[in-house]
Structures are given as C-alpha cells and as structure tokens.
Design brief:
The complex is a heterodimer of chains A (about 425) and B (about 170). With about 425 residues, chain A is mainly alpha-helical. Chain A is about 70% helix and about 5% strand. In chain A, a hairpin with a 3-residue loop joins β3 and β4. Chain B is about 25% helix and about 15% strand. The relative contact order of chain B is 0.14. The chains are: A mainly alpha (about 425), B alpha+beta (about 170).
Chain lengths: ~425, ~170
C-alpha cells in the first residue's frame, strides 16, 4: 500500500512540475522573445488592473482556448483526428517516469528512491516513447485531410528518423561510459570525480556525444532551428493547422512539455541530474545544517536587495500611470520583503542544528532544487536558441542529420569503445 | 553541399571550417541575443515601444488626418457642390448631391456630402482641388474606428461638426 501511495505522490510531483512549468515557459517565451527583439512583449491582460509584466497572459490564453469554438474539417478521419492531440500529450508527459529528480528520501525508515519508475531499461524506454510522439504528429497531419498538415506530418517523420539515429548513437557512448541502461545508475555515476577534481558529468566524459544529443533533442522536440513540421512561413502551421480550441491547446502544451522533457533528459544524462558538483550526498547530509543556514541567509539577503530595488521603483514611479498599475511595484516590494522576512524568520528555528532526519530531508531538497534549476536553465536554452537561429532548409536538415551527425556519432561511439577498453 | 543549379562559388563554398560546423557561430548568436535581453531588462525605460492608448505619438503640424468641412460665417457649409473634389478623388470616395442655394450669387449647395472613410486614401487631393477652401484635411485625427462598415460613410453634419477620436 505504501508503495502505491508514494508512487502516486511522486507522479503528482512530476506532473505538477511539468504543468507548473508550461505556463511559466509560455510566458518566458513571449516575454523573452520580446526583450531579445527590443520589444516590450505582452503586458495588457491583468487582474483588477494589475498586469504583472504579462504574467496573467497564460491564464487568459488558456481561458480563450477553452471557450473557443472547435472548428473541424469536414472530411477528417474522425477517430485519428481526435486521438492525435491526446497521443502527443500523453507521450510528452510519460517520458518523465524514468527521470530521477532526487537521490532518495528516508521516511519512517523507508528509503524511497525519487524516481517514478526505476526501469532497468530506462534509456531504451526514453528512446521508444520519444519516437512514439511522432505518431501523434503524423496522425494529426494525415487525419485532418489537408495538404499542409500532411506535409507537416511527412516532414516530422523524416526528421525523426534522421535524428533518432544520432540520438541513439550519442546515448550509446554514454552507455559505454556508465555501463548501465538504468537512468538512476547513470545519474549516480555522474556524482563521482574524474582525476579527483572534475565532476564526472556526461558532458565532461562525452563532449561530442553531448553536442550530438542536444542537437537531436532540439530536432525531437520540433523546436527551432528544427521546427520544419510547423514551418509557418512554408506550410502555414504544419500538422496542427486544422486544429482549434482545446485540441490545439493540447498540441501547444505538448510542445512545451516536450521542451521540459528534453531539458530534464539533458540535465539527467549529461549534467549530473540532481548531483551538485563536489557535494556528493554524504557530504550534503553531514553539513546539511550549515548549508541550510547559508542558503537561508543568502535568500534573505537577495530578497531584501530585490525588495529595496522595488522600493526605489515605488518612490521613483509614484503615480506614473494613474491607475492600478501603480500598485505593481508595491506588490513586488511586499512579495520580496515577505520572502526576506520569512527566510530571516526561519533562522530563529536554529536550522544549523537539525537532526539526522532533517539532514536527510534538507539534502534531498537541495538535490531536487539542483535538478529543477538545471531543467529551468535548459528549458530557457530552448527558448533562447529559438529566437537566435533561423530555421534550417529541408536539404540542410537532411545533410546535417545524415552526412554530419551520423558519422560523428559513429566515430564518437568507436572512440569511446576504444578508450573504455584501454582504461 | 553541392546543389545543381546553384552558381559556383556560392555562399556555402566560401564558409571557413569553423563556420561550417555551426557551433561557434551558434554561440556567437546566443551572445548577441543575450546581450539584447539583458540590456532591455536592465533599461526598460530605453525600450522604443510606445504604450499606445496611454502614450501617443506627436505628429508634425503638416500631418493631415481626417477631413472636415469649413463653414461660412452664418454656419452653413462653404461648399458650393461644384463636384471638383469628387471628380479629382483617386479613391472615388466622395459623393455629393447638389441642391439650389436660396442666394443666387452662391448658386449651389450640397444637400448631402458623404465621404467613405474606408475608401479614402487621405491623399489630400480634394483639399487641393477645392476652389473655395471648403474641405480641409487638417484635423490631425488618425484614430478612426467603428463596428460596422456603414458607419464609416460619414455625412455633412459629421464633417462639419464632429471631432470624435476613436469609435465613430
């Protein structure tokens, strides 16, 4: 019974992490794109006149998509047309099952590994599920009975086939180094040190493999510069052209879920997952109290600094707009001041003197935070790259996939094998 | 890459090795966008975006904007319904129905004077064609909106008196 409950809780945590990150990423995408292009970005939707730099826009978007009319093409294949968005979404979230978000947590003497399903064929599962996502795209493209969606689906198939091979080859290099298909083993292996000072992260032992993998992940997620299946300047909107309302929302959300999955995979396989460099789990547990104190003090200081910045804005911009937006800096100041006060107040509880149970909890918390931090960074990288690079032309895409990445992947595999044999 | 039909020595052949493996160039591009991002976050006040309904651009004095009809001292329109403006109009958006003026020295006056603001290209040729300075494009009003096409066809009374900005 306990195992069912803890698995459900872990699933809930992962699900909330993804679903919480999706609107945040949509906001970051729109606002980040705007700032990169010297624009202001969304800042109109608001609650009671408070606009919070466009943070309310995702909610407005969701409401709009929920209540829109669901326009469907007359000659669609009904079953596949309806199934496609759900398939894409399901596949996008199910990859998370094998990605560990922390080492373990001890509750009432039970050691709970912080991964939903600790599969011994985790890597194969990731590859298998990732390629299933293409079916949703192809089905959606074909079932809508439209030339452009069909082209989008075809492009998606060709792209997946080309890049999945490089992805597999890159992962095989990693497999040789850590000699396990179990992702928890790979992440645990990355906690060691190489030559006594370098963290044995995937990116350190497999730099070429990392470059190949991250490129393949960008292609798998259909993000720029590999978003040919969408290619709005060429084939209107690609595979999701004929979808509207909630079904379109599912495709849209699935894209962001894929981004989070991609980011989680990159961090788990090549950036040590939940590992904090030079701070392995035993060290973390031994100094948990000290680290927590440092963390709280740092949080209090940074929050206080932000609160001061907002206070200066409050003074400088008093009555600037003459409406509810004047309250925004005040709200920001209250939020950061509250956080600073909470962090400082927590110091009263003597965090440096926590017991062994607390130490375990704090160590886990730090590792989960490290993982989430890495995921957030790589999710931002997806957005950052999208607004930097132009889309590949189709022949360039194929050239890169077959003539560059495939030979490089093979060479990387052979080189890794030779080195592993000699060492 | 070789592509039949591409001229020899096209861009793809002149790439250096470093450029052809993309990675360095990608990182350079990322640095450029990151610089813009950080600059704009730190100096939101330098952003060129104008928050339109709250802030409005100041146009030059010669900016034309929507038409108006001029009045005589007694308040009747100066227009003598000579049809010069509607004849000259390149967008064919002016419709005038002439009537006989009680004062024989004036001869005619417009019984109706309609401008389709959706067809108008705001070129100002009507203003130039007018022999008695009855129509001018000098209101500076550029915010013209309505929820029905019919409302954009404005008549004599509107052109003589109205100064609505925004929804008609």
């Amino acid at each position: 019974m306990a195992i069912v409950l803890e698995t459900l809780l872990k699933i809930l945590f992962m699900f909330l992490l993804i679903m919480g990150m999706v609107p945040a990423l949509i906001w970051a995408e729109r606002k980040g794109a705007a700032y990169i292009q010297d624009r202001t970005g969304p800042n109109r939707a608001g609650i009671a006149g408070v606009r919070l730099a466009g943070l309310v826009h995702p909610i407005a978007d969701v409401l709009k998509l929920l209540f829109k009319e669901d326009v469907t093409p007359a000659n669609r294949h009904k079953a596949l047309y309806n199934l496609a968005p759900w398939l894409v979404m399901t596949v996008a979230v199910s990859t998370y099952a094998v990605i560990p978000f922390g080492d373990h947590l001890t509750v009432a003497g039970r050691r709970i590994p912080l991964v939903v399903a600790d599969l011994n064929v985790g890597l194969l599962y990731v590859l298998a599920v990732a390629s299933l996502g293409t079916y949703g795209v192809v089905m959606g493209g074909w079932a809508a009975n439209n030339k452009f969606t069909f082209l989008g689906g075809i492009r998606s198939t060709a792209q997946m086939i080309s890049y999945e091979i490089s992805m597999g080859l890159a992962l095989m290099g990693l497999l040789l180094v850590f000699s396990s298909l179990r992702i928890t083993d790979i992440v645990a292996g990355q906690g060691e040190l190489l030559f006594g000072f370098l963290p044995k992260w995937g990116v350190v032992v497999q730099p070429l493999g990392f470059v190949l993998f991250i490129t393949a992940v960008f292609a798998e997620t259909n993000r720029n510069p590999f978003d040919l299946p969408e290619g709005e300047s060429e084939i209107v909107a690609g595979y999701h052209l004929e979808y509207s309302s909630l079904k379109f929302a599912l495709f849209f959300m699935a894209e962001y879920c894929h981004m989070v999955v991609g980011a989680a995979m990159i961090s788990a396989l090549y950036f040590g997952g939940y590992q904090i460099p030079w701070l392995p789990r035993p060290v973390l547990e031994a100094h948990a109290g000290l680290l927590l104190t440092i963390k709280l003090v740092a949080l209090a200081l940074v929050s206080a600094w932000f609160a001061l910045l907002f206070l200066r804005r409050v003074q400088r911009e008093r009555g600037k707009f003459g409406d509810a937006r004047d309250r925004e800096p005040v709200l920001g100041m209250v939020f950061w001041a509250g956080l600073a006060a909470a962090a400082a107040g927590a110091l009263v509880l003597r965090p440096w003197a926590i017991g062994p149970v607390g130490a375990d909890l704090v160590a886990t918390l730090f590792q989960v935070l490290a993982f989430v931090g890495k995921v957030v960074f790589f999710a931002w990288l997806f957005i950052w790259v999208r607004w930097t690079l132009p889309r590949f032309r189709y022949d360039q895409l194929m050239n890169l996939g077959w003539k560059v990445m495939l030979p490089l992947g093979l060479a990387n595999l052979v080189a890794t094998a030779v080195v592993m044999y000699l060492v | 890459m070789s592509f039949e039909g591409l001229p020899k020595g096209s861009a793809s052949k002149q790439r250096s090795f470093l450029e052809s493996i993309y990675l360095v160039e990608v990182v350079k591009g990322l640095v450029v966008t990151a610089r813009h991002l950080v600059d704009n976050i730190l100096h939101t006040d330098r952003m060129p975006t104008m928050q339109y309904p709250e802030e409005k651009r100041v146009y030059s004095d010669r900016f034309r904007g929507r038409h108006r009809l001029m009045k005589r001292e007694d308040g009747t329109p100066r227009c003598v319904a000579c049809q010069m403006c509607s004849t000259y109009c390149p967008a064919d958006c002016i419709t005038i129905v002439a009537g006989e003026h009680p004062d024989a020295s004036i001869e005619k006056f417009p019984e109706s004077f309609e401008i389709d603001l959706l067809r108008c290209v705001y070129c100002g040729l009507c203003e130039e064609a007018c022999p008695c300075d009855a129509i001018r494009l000098d209101t500076g009003i550029y915010e013209i909106a309505a929820d029905q096409r019919e409302k954009f066809v404005v008549g004599k009374e509107f052109l003589l008196n109205d100064t609505t900005r925004g929804t008609l």
